[in-house]
Write a structure and sequence with these properties.
8 strands, globular, 8-stranded mixed sheet, 12 helices, Rossmann fold, alpha/beta, 276 residues
C-alpha cells in the first residue's frame, strides 16, 4: 500500500478521469467544446490571439473582449494533468461570460515533461500578473481580474491565488495535494520528487491573505478528486480566508464545465457573486 491504503494500480485508477468517464464520452465533450470555441472565435473579431506573456513558445494567451469598457475579466487555465491540452478548445466559456459583460482570457503554458512543476506554476502566476498589469490597455478593470481553471487548471488556480491583486478565484475539480500524483502513473511525465510535490501543493502553502476562492467539484467525479476539493476548501476556511465549497450533484469530471459555460450555470453564478 503506497497511499491511503491503495496500491499502485488502485491509486492509478483513482486519478484516471478519462477511464472513469470513458474515452468515447470524453472525446465527444472535446469535439463539442472545439466546435463551440471555433464559433466564438469566428464571432469575436476583436479578439487578441496568441499574445505573449513570457519568453517561451507556449507562454501565450487569448483575450476575448466583451465590448464593455472597464469590464471584469476571467483568466481561465485549462487542465490536462499538466501534460496535455491547449487553450483553443476553451473559448466556449465565452458563451456565458461575454454576453454578461466579462472579458475572457485563455492561458496556455509549457507542458510536462518539457517543464517541471515549478516552471508551470511560475508561468501561470506570470500570466495572471500580465493580465492585471495590462488590464487598462485592454480596456479592462485591473481591480476585477478573476482566475479559474479545471483539473490541473484548478490546481494552478489555487497557486495563482498567491497574487494579492486578484479579485477572486474558482478552482474546478482541482488537485491540491500532489503527493498522490507523485506516487501514481501521472508522475511518469511530471517527474515530481517529494520536495517538489510538497512545495507545489496548495494545501501546504495557504496564503496569509487572499481574495475569495470558490472550490467546486462534481459529486459524480472520482472520490479522490471530491476528497481533495473538500479538504482544500476546509483548509482554506480554517486559515481564515474567504470563500466556500460548492459541490455539484449530477456532474462528472468533464460535464462540470457546462456550469461555467452556461448563462444559468452554478459556477458562472458563483463568478457573478464574486464580481458583485
Amino acid at each position: 500500500m503506497i497511499y491511503r491504503g491503495m496500491d499502485r494500480a488502485t491509486l492509478d485508477a483513482a486519478y484516471n478521469n478519462t477511464a472513469a468517464v470513458g474515452i468515447p464520452k470524453r472525446d465527444a465533450y472535446v469535439a463539442g467544446w472545439s466546435a463551440r470555441s471555433d464559433a466564438i472565435r469566428a464571432k469575436i473579431g476583436t479578439a487578441r490571439l496568441d499574445v505573449r506573456y513570457g519568453a517561451t513558445p507556449r507562454e501565450r494567451l487569448d483575450f476575448f473582449p466583451c465590448g464593455r469598457p472597464q469590464a471584469p475579466t476571467l483568466v481561465y487555465v485549462h487542465g490536462g494533468y499538466w501534460q496535455f491540452n491547449d487553450k483553443e478548445p476553451y473559448a466556449f466559456m465565452g458563451e456565458s461570460l461575454l454576453p454578461a459583460g466579462f472579458n475572457l482570457v485563455l492561458v496556455e503554458y509549457t507542458l510536462a515533461p518539457e517543464a517541471r512543476m515549478d516552471r508551470i506554476v511560475a508561468e501561470i502566476r506570470r500570466s495572471v500578473a500580465w493580465v492585471i498589469d495590462h488590464a487598462k490597455e485592454l480596456d479592462a478593470d485591473p481591480a476585477r481580474v478573476f482566475v479559474s481553471g479545471h483539473s490541473a487548471g484548478g490546481h494552478l488556480t489555487a497557486e495563482a491565488m498567491q497574487e494579492p491583486r486578484l479579485a477572486g478565484g474558482i478552482a474546478i475539480s482541482g488537485l491540491f495535494d500532489l503527493e498522490p500524483i507523485r506516487l501514481c502513473y501521472l508522475n511518469d511525465k511530471l517527474g515530481l520528487d517529494p520536495a517538489e510535490a510538497q512545495r507545489n501543493s496548495p494545501i501546504h502553502h495557504l496564503p496569509k491573505r487572499a481574495a475569495p476562492l470558490v472550490v467546486t467539484v462534481g459529486l459524480d467525479e472520482l472520490p479522490e478528486l471530491v476528497r481533495q476539493s473538500k479538504e482544500y476548501a476546509e483548509a482554506w476556511r480554517k486559515a481564515g480566508l474567504k470563500g466556500h465549497y460548492l459541490p455539484l450533484a449530477g456532474h462528472e469530471h468533464f460535464s462540470i464545465l457546462e456550469e461555467l459555460a452556461r448563462p444559468d450555470g452554478k459556477i458562472f453564478g458563483a463568478l457573478q457573486e464574486l464580481a458583485r
